[in-house]
Design brief:
Helix content: 40-55%
CATH superfamily of the largest domain: Hypothetical protein, domain 2
Low-confidence stretches: none
Largest sheet: none
Structural class: mainly alpha
CATH topology of the largest domain: Endonuclease III, domain 1
Mean pLDDT: 95
CATH architecture of the largest domain: Orthogonal Bundle
Number of strands: 0
CATH class of the largest domain: Mainly Alpha
Amino acid sequence: MSGQALKVLNILEKEYPDARVTLHFEDPLQLLIATILAAQCTDERVNLVTKDLFKKYHQTADFAGADLRTLEDEIRPTGFYHNKAKSIIGCCEMLVKKFHGQVPQSLEDLTSLPGVGRKTANIILGNAYGQQAIAVDTHVKRVTHRLAWAKSDDPDKIEFELMKVIPRERWTMACHQLVFHGRKVCRAQQPQCPTCPVVKFCPKIGVPLRK
């Protein structure tokens, strides 16, 4: 399986040379906030919201001390704004109290923060701190199911399945490539199998992700 995965990743690397996280950020805190907002929302919409948000809130303490109602209104376009606002404020309050206002660099510390699961933590580790990490979003889940690299429906379990398939030194970039492929070709509805560059490695051609 690892040999097949390597061939697929080599093709995707050539197909998507600019694969990267598409959330806009300048530091770990901004990426943390943007990733929380990105739940059930497109990166494009999040980027529109954070463009103004990051002009107002510069430091962890700014978010920790934010007025809940005001923050809800500011992030409303991203959806689920009640929960997201509570998570952002609670998360930043803990960062101030426990981590001196700094976003930690370990999975254990990150997942101890309110509203931060393994996916969000791995996005931070892989893209803000340059560590190798597997972040399983809806695209990674769908594509790796179709390629038969993963079987679980639980993103956390899929992460561990992919650790056995994808070489460690490629974890972070492989996720970007899988996301780009999922957005462009291996779509949830009407996957573009005839033009897929890795179709010969796919045992589930055209099969939609099971519910």
